[in-house]
Structures are given as structure tokens and as C-alpha cells.
Amino acid sequence: MSSSDPAGRGLAAVADVPPVAQAAVPTVDVDRSDPEYRAWLKEAVRKVQADANRSADTHLLRFPLPEEWGIDLYLKDESTHPTGSLKHRLARSLFLYGLCNGWIRPGRPVIEASSGSTAVSEAYFAGLIGVPFIAVMPRTTSAEKCRLIEFHGGQCHFVDDSRKMYEESARLAAETGGHYMDQFTYAERATDWRGNNNIAESIYQQMKLERYPEPSWIVATAGTGGTSATIARYVHYMQYDTFICVPDPENSCFFDGWSNHDPAATSDCGSRIEGIGRPRMEPSFVTGAVDRMMKVPDAASVAAVRALDTALGRKAGGSTGTGLWSALKIVAEMVEQGRRGSVVTLICDPGDRYLDKYYSDAWLAEQGLDIAPYSAAIEQFLRTGIWP
Q: What's the CATH number where 219 sits?
């Protein structure tokens, strides 16, 4: 069911509000020079920045490969953030961006269109600074993600069609006088891609003492596109020779939009791999910064994430499997070409959020997904070095 408005206005009335095509900057309804507001703003920014100081860097794990290949595969484990996913970095950046722009205001809700992990992290930061939070999400979002949003003090507002999340979020912001965070527009500009301990800088710092410290490839899946943009821009800014690959799941338009140079590309149904893949080309997906994309079957994503559990004893979400499948294919190409080097991909979030999906054989059967051929392909490759 839809949540009630934390400001007490009642979101049931939102259905009568005309759709809003684009999130609008909140109306100036506070005196920006008011000492009380400035004191609140300073304290809110301090709290968000203090969260970063309390958080140690995430681990860089090695995926076991035969030594004779001369190739190292790493996974940066973003599931160890306080809110359990890569989106913790994004949420922190978006909150600082919104606060410093004067868009997030005391007592007014922050609203986000999210399939889950971003909403979990944003609920955490909203609670940290004491503002209400409403997540607009597909009704199919995992129950565990919904529980986590509510655990952090947020409220869930469901839509039946994932393509309607944007306008519904903007509509709620107009009704409540809140701020629509709009991660899909602001992700790439809210993150400081030149440094400031972003994920790319962290990867290169952690790779310094490895035998191949400059990765041949970094593989990053895309939801907003903010992570791939941050990593790619940092690589170019620092003049590294690393290439960036973005894998895309089924039911997502990013691959087609990138391949055909079509900024208007769309997909007419939502992604089954939560957190990545979009029905439209998002403003934060910077296509010009990406060197390569791969289209990954959903069954392959699930097979890969289960292979990760077998290899490292770590369960992760489906988006991690999408990235790992592509990273393994890149490793296979390097083996075939006799090249040595390193490849880095990401553990985006923990698998305990998806036990009823990617780790459920009943869910796979319901979705018509057969992972057996893909599991066999991974097993054969790791055993022989030859991709089927």
C-alpha cells in the first residue's frame, strides 16, 4: 500500500495532482539568511560529512583464478557500507548536493524514485539529519529492501509500472512541498569525480601494491550511471590506460542507446535485476565516457552471483552477478590473447536482500530463467581457461 505523508497532508490526494514532467527545484519558502536555518544547514552538512569519517574504506577482494593465467580479478565490496550497498556513496553525495543547493529544508520530506538500494541509503541520511523520507518504487521491489527503508525511518510508496516512478515522485514533491532528489538526473553531477575519496580513487589506492596496479578494465553496472561516469571521468582525468565496461541486463535500454547513439532509447518493461537497468536513457548515464558495453542475460547474472557464493562464500545481489559475468568474459578474452593484467568489478549489495529472488529456485522457475547453461559455462571456463 502507499504510505501516508509524514508531513500530515495525506498522499491519497496526490492522485488528483496533474503529472509533473520534471522535478522542480523547491519553491523558496525559507529565508536563506535566517540564523536558525543557517544553523540547521551547518549541522545537517556536518552530520553527513561525519558519516564519511566514521566509515572505513570498503574491501577489495580477490576472485580465485589459476596463477598461470597471469590475470588477477578483484571485486570491490561495497556491501560493507553502513547501509549495505554501493548506493551509500551516492546517497551521501546527493544529500550534500541538495543541502548545499538549499533544496533540502527542515521539516520537508525528501522523495526519491528508487528500486531499493538508493532508497535504503537515502532513508538513512534523511534520518541522520531529521527530515522525512518517501521512496517511490515498483511494487515488485524485494520485501527485504522495503523492510530496510522502513527500518531507517523511511516510507514506501508503490507504483505498478516502474516507468511511472519519475512523475509520481515529482507529483509527491509538489503535493508535500518536499524535494524530489532525482538520482537519475543528479548522480553524475553530485559526485566529485576528480577525487575526494570517490570509488575510483579508492580502487587505485588499494591497487597500489598489487602486481598489476593499474587495471586493464574496470567493470561497473549502471542504474543511474553515476558510478560508471565517476570511474570513467577519474580514469581520463588521471590519464590512466584503464578501459571502462558497463554491462546491461535484459529489459534495459542503456545498451541499445549506447550502441545506436540514441539518447531517446527506451525499454517497455522493467529490469528483473534490481538496482540496474532502466526503461529510458537517464541523464546521469554519460555514454561518451564508456569504452564498452555488454548485454547480459538475466540468467547469466544469477549464475554468476551464485558462482561468487561458491568461490568466496559471499552472497550478493543480482547486479553484482551482471558485473561478474562480464568481468569473467573479459578475463577469458585476455587469456585467449595471452595478455596479463588485472580486472576490477564491484559487489554492489548483499545477497540477503534477495534470498526470495536470485537464490530461490522457485522464483527462477516463475520467471522462466534457466541458469544451468550459464553456470556450466563459468565452471568450464574456470577449469580450462576456455570460454564455451
A: 3.40.50.1100
Decide if 349 contacts 317 (C-beta within 8 A): yes
Rounded CA separation 271/317 (Å): 13
| 57 grid coordinates | 574504506
Convert the pLDDT of each residue in 301-357 to its tens digit: 999 999 999 999 999 999 999 999 999 999 999 999 999 999 999 999 999 989 999
Contacts for 106 with CB less than 8 Å, ≥ 6 apart:
30, 37, 40, 130, 131
281 found inside a domain: yes
Q: Residue written as cell 550511471?
A: 225
Three cell numbers at 310? 561458491
Confidence at residue 196, expressed as pLDDT on a 0 to 100 scale: 64
Whole domain around residue 67: which residue ranges? 56-83+193-384
d(CA 60, CA 343): 12
Q: How far apart are CA 276 and CA 39, in angstroms?
A: 38
Q: Which cell numbers in the block locate residue 147?
A: 523492510
Q: Nearest-CA neighbor of 133 among 7, 254, 272?
A: 7
Pairing mode of beta strands 110-113, 179-180: parallel
Confidence (pTM): 0.85
pLDDT tens digit sequence for 188-240: 999 888 766 689 999 999 999 999 999 999 999 999 999 999 999 999 999 99
Residue 15 lies in a domain: no
Cβ-based neighbours of 32, under 8 Å, separated by 6 or more: 38, 102
DSSP 8-state code for residue 57: P
